[in-house]
Amino acid sequence: MSFSTAWDERYRANTQLSVWPWSDLVSYVMRYARPSGRETAVLELGCGAGANIPFFKELGVRYYAVEGSPAIVERLRERFPDLKDNIVVGDFTQEIPLEGRFDLVADRSSLTHNSDSAIRNCLSLLRARLKEGGSYIGIDWFSTAHSDFRAGKAAEDPYTRRDFESGQFAKVGRVHFSDRAHLEDLFKGFSIETLEHKIVERKIPDVAHVFASWNLVARLRHGGS
User: Least packed by Cβ within 10 Å: which of 7, 14, 71, 84?
Assistant: First the structure.
């Protein structure tokens, strides 16, 4: 199993409970993959505490999610009873335990918390489950320019780190960092239509910390190979 149980522990401890839609995800969906109501099937990878669910419900899409934490899925089913059959517990790097195909896959910083091999396996699964011309929108794939790429311990591959002792990645298991060439290699079989690199440097307090991540839109190529 690739999903880190550390996330389930964080949710049970009532931490990492973001509840407001992520502005970058909202912007990217509306700009690059504007849904058409019930005609649009959306799959969210790692929905967490459900920050983006109200946004997708407002759009009137058919919403589905695969989330690795049983604790948070139980809460979400109570909060959104109309979606109780659409939000499932699972490891999306191993399988997509939902029926049908999807027009859009939304992912705000979920797949990037896995190893290289797990990410590649998930993207292979998505190529089989996206409709032709369907889109994957990835928000905040952590960049090798991020200060914490030099922190933590080495994991299974050169891009993955684990066991962070402090900072935003403490107690959340694996974190994958990418440069442009690595992302382009990961997304073979897709056409990357938009790729933006976001860098935020903290000046006060002056701790020489850089947050850096990638936002991307990848569309399924004809044939998906």
Answer: 14
Q: In order of start, what are the domains of the chain with their CATH numbers?
A: 5-143+177-200+214-220 (3.40.50.150)
Cβ atoms within 10 Å, residue 23: 9
Contact 190, 217 (CB under 8 A): no
Look at the block and give the residue holding tokens 């290699």: 185
Give the lowest-confidence range in 27-36, 42-51, 215-224: 215-224
Task: Write the burial class of residue 14 (CB in 10 Å: 0-12 exposed, 13-18 middle, 19+ buried).
Answer: exposed
In percent, the amount of the chain with pLDDT more than 90 equals 80
pLDDT tens by residue, 71-108 = 999 999 999 999 999 999 999 999 999 999 999 999 99
Token code pair at residue 34: 């504007």
pTM above 0.90, yes or no: yes
Distances in Å between the Cα of 31 and the Cα atoms of 6, 25, 28, 35, 217 are: 34, 10, 5, 10, 10
| SS3 state of residue 89 | strand
> Are the beta carbons of 146 and 210 closer than 8 angstroms?
yes
Query: What is the C-alpha separation between 153 and 132, in angstroms, rounded?
Result: 39
Contacts of 111 (CB under 8 A, 6+ apart): 45, 46, 92, 93, 119, 122, 123, 138, 141
Nearest to 104 by CA among 34, 53, 55, 23: 34
Assign 158 a pLDDT band (cuts: 50, 70, 90).
very high
